[in-house]
């Protein structure tokens, strides 16, 4: 009898290998990030390692570590559950018995036993296509998908800017972007926050700077690819099912974030950017990028939210079955009842399907991390408003004008006024012969005042020489290039921290994750160096 060739299509080796490859890739990227965190923690300068700074840094690291582990656990659970339900649905449609089922499972042995048919399942079911149909085709599911993609693009820009500022290795920057694409956005986001806590100064001791720290790309380099990717994303519900939908999805989801993260490094020519005179102007130039993303994402969220409400709102008239009278009866819903049902259905989409739960929980956990970051870093409310659609209510412009007037007023030279010493009244003459070799009180006092004035003049001359000291050109350039975050919290201002967190939560409730991540990360990029 001839040997029977094995059916490679029904083999479980290929699906298990693909799943293990994704797990090993996430582990490898996480190991690269953790190695950078370890080296950064070892190279902290003494000025950033005081007892108070270490106390606050340890607290913040614990907070974001817990958020990162929570995100990884939740997203991993729903990812496995999504694949499990997909296999069960396929097995049910093919009339296959499912093992390890308590009530309907088959527990035969030998040839009658039940085994997994993962190879045939992967051949018949395209998981990526199935996820697109669930998360993109449905308006309520696409409400979470577009928030995650906008946050992914914005977070990639932030990783590139802060990675260049802190002189992180290129492999680490790319690892963060790949982690946010392959595993979870919130997981990579929390890990990057931990890296920022351990790198208050650039890592010049680890690697030489790849580019001038005062050079930044022009804002159009960032917001033109980001805006085009957002527009193509909102065209995806109409493109799903056509042959060209997967190339658009691949380029928009993988290529654009990596390009935006590497835009501030050596891949762009120098003519595409601008070299600023100091670090403040270099950082403030990036606010327009986050402002554009925040405003654009707000309008897109309003558009998608309206479509989702239209999809989940029930009709005004309905027909219901009356079990008492055993008959159908008609009814009419009020506007408030229709709106409440639409909101209930919209919120219930978080747990309708694991494919949507992966995206929705990632968005929610990312929003929690951003609110915690705004709270722990005490971000300026005006700087957060500058990067949002509510920039009209920001008072930072008036504040900058006052600072400029104050600086110009202080820079004016003040006229020196010569102080006139008070006249000394002559001493009263006394009877008798003056003592031999003695001095009168007038001479003594004048001599003491002369000695004191000589001493004061010397001290004043030294202080004037110190005030008139001007650093050299090389020293001024080094000072301008030096970065140092304010890790010392001092007395915790709970009011300021609460205002930043409350504003972040309000922006999320208004426009979703897009305005939230643009305002928080924009305030971190543009205003953190001023505190």
Automatic annotation (TrEMBL):
Keywords associated with the record: Membrane, Transmembrane, Transmembrane helix
Organism: Lepidopterella palustris CBS 459.81
Transmembrane spans: 12-34, 61-80, 173-199, 220-240, 246-264, 285-302
Annotated region (Disordered), positions in chain: 410-473
Protein name as it appears in the record: Uncharacterized protein
The UniProt record lists the keyword Membrane: yes
Start-end of Basic residues biased regions: 428-438, 449-458
Lineage: superkingdom: Eukaryota
Biased composition range(s): Low complexity: 414-427, 439-448
Ranges of Basic and acidic residues composition bias in the record: 459-469
């Amino acid at each position: 009898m001839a040997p029977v060739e094995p059916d490679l299509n029904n083999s479980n080796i290929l699906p298990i290998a693909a799943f293990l490859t994704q797990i090993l890739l996430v582990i490898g990227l996480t190991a690269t990030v953790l190695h950078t965190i370890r080296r950064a923690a070892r190279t902290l300068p003494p000025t950033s390692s005081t007892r108070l700074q270490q106390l606050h840094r340890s607290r913040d690291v614990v907070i974001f570590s817990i958020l990162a582990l929570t995100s990884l656990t939740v997203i991993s659970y729903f990812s496995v559950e999504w694949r499990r339900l997909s296999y069960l649905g396929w097995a049910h449609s093919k009339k296959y018995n499912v093992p390890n089922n308590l009530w309907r499972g088959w527990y035969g042995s030998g040839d009658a036993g039940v085994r997994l048919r993962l190879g045939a399942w992967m051949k018949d079911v395209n998981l990526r296509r199935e996820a697109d149909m669930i998360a993109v085709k449905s308006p309520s599911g696409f409400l979470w998908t577009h928030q995650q993609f906008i946050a992914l693009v914005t977070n990639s820009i932030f990783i590139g800017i802060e990675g260049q500022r802190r002189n992180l290795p290129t492999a680490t920057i790319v690892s963060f972007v790949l982690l946010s694409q392959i595993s979870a956005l919130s997981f990579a986001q929390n890990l990057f926050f931990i890296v920022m806590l351990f790198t208050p100064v650039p890592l010049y001791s680890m690697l030489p700077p790849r580019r001038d720290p005062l050079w930044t790309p022009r804002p159009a380099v960032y917001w033109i690819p980001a805006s085009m990717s957002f527009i193509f994303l909102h065209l995806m519900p109409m493109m799903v099912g056509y042959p060209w939908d997967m190339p658009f999805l691949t380029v928009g989801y993988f290529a654009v974030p990596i390009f935006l993260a590497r835009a501030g490094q050596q891949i762009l020519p120098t003519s595409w950017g601008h070299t600023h005179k100091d670090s403040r102007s270099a950082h403030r130039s990036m606010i327009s990028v986050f402002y554009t993303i925040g405003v654009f994402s707000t309008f897109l969220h309003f558009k998608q939210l309206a479509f989702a409400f239209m999809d989940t709102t029930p009709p005004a008239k309905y027909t219901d079955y009356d079990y008492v009278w055993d008959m159908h009866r008609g009814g009419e819903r009020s506007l408030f009842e229709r709106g409440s049902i639409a909101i209930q259905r919209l919120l219930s989409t978080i747990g309708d399907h694991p494919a949507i739960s992966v995206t929705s929980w990632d968005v929610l956990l990312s929003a929690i991390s951003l609110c915690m970051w705004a709270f722990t870093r005490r971000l300026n409310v005006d700087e957060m408003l500058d990067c949002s659609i509510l920039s009209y209510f920001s008072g930072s412009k008036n504040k900058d004008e006052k600072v400029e007037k104050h600086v110009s007023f202080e820079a004016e030279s003040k006229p020196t006024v010569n102080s006139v010493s008070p006249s000394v009244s002559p001493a009263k003459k006394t009877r008798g012969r003056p003592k031999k070799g003695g001095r009168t009180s007038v001479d003594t006092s004048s001599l003491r005042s002369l000695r004191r004035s000589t001493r004061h003049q010397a001290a004043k001359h030294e202080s004037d020489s110190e005030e008139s000291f001007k650093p050299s050109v090389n020293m001024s350039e080094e000072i301008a290039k030096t970065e140092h975050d304010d890790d010392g919290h001092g007395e915790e201002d709970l009011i300021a921290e609460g205002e930043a967190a409350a504003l972040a939560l309000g922006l999320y409730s208004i426009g979703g994750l897009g305005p939230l991540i643009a305002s928080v990360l924009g305030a971190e990029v543009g205003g953190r160096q001023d505190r």
